[in-house]
């Protein structure tokens, strides 16, 4: 093998011996020897590096490559482990072992100077689950003796996620919405039974109960997992990765992602100062959480948010609003919406509004003017001001050029286009292995920039002659490029 071979350099880069200590409690001292943990992790990393999803194809591919056999420690005529052994070993190892491998590689990235830690870009993308949408079943309503299943099988524990848990009003709204879409759809075949709009509130996958039905604008519904990443903006190293359920908003996963990211950075004495994300992470709770940890949130607010209310002026000292007629709308009470978000309610007195000449245009059908604002409106306003600034526009471009190319590489070149395992824990392990393979490639490609500075000391008479020559040939009307050409010829 030549010295520049990928797997030869990879074998010299990583010390795999720590895996024996982490997996010692999972192996028995008696019986036939099991699959070596180092061989297992090398094998599954080869699958990520070679963009292979299937374990069968992985074993067949490794048997044809001499460099991979040498990397795994196998002879040419020695038989590789079965694909079923690889699958069972993946299920045997807990996610903590995979996270330990990720931390080990991340520590090498920090030691080589690839991680600054101060600025992190966060994003998420759906990953196709190892289940088909054609096999989903309808959830059964809960009964007094458990879910009522239309089968002749003996009663037993209900499968995970097979019971309806959504409130009745959400189910009614969902049914009405689906009926409107089907009735007004002009697509041929939209009224077919298989073309119905599936929802996580009414259907589940018996193949992979943790997979969720999600939809992306412009694409069909599919069973997916959500991959959440944090990427260091210095050189694009992945600093955190986690698998989330795909039926919830991105903003709900930020607190757990931030906790894991902060813990990893603090272990290497790095401090997070700026966090970059898209509008999907805009949430008052997230803004307050980041401000409490003294982290600047470069997260744009939603387009429907308005920092100022037309005709009303907010006064932070007294926490009230002043209308165009000079009347005061003080803070009255807190309230909650259906989604659980807290609100602040401001309203004026009825006497002020009844005698106001602006009432026909301000509140034509009400007795008084009422304003509703989010409880984190101050944090929203500060985030909106940062978004409108010149630096906020630059941070948006930095995020787009940092984390989005990483997702493209993982999906198209590191086998993250589809899961080959089932369950939330298996998806998390696969995403960790993909991030480890990506960071290892970053380590192998990294070359420190050696800047050579040559200081030439010229004698004083020569410097004076150069100044006189410059003054003699310098002409105010001549362009700078012409002057440089003349001096270069001289």
UniProtKB/TrEMBL annotation:
**Domain Transposase InsH N-terminal, which positions?**
2-91
- Pfam families, per the entry: DDE_Tnp_1_6, DUF772
Stretches with biased composition (Low complexity): 150-162
- Top-rank taxon of the source lineage equals Bacteria
Q: Domain Transposase DDE: where?
A: 323-444
Spans annotated as Disordered? 135-162, 470-490
Q: Which residues form a coiled coil?
A: none
Against PANTHER family, the record matches this protein to: TRANSPOSASE, TRANSPOSASE DDE DOMAIN-CONTAINING PROTEIN
Stated name of the protein = Transposase
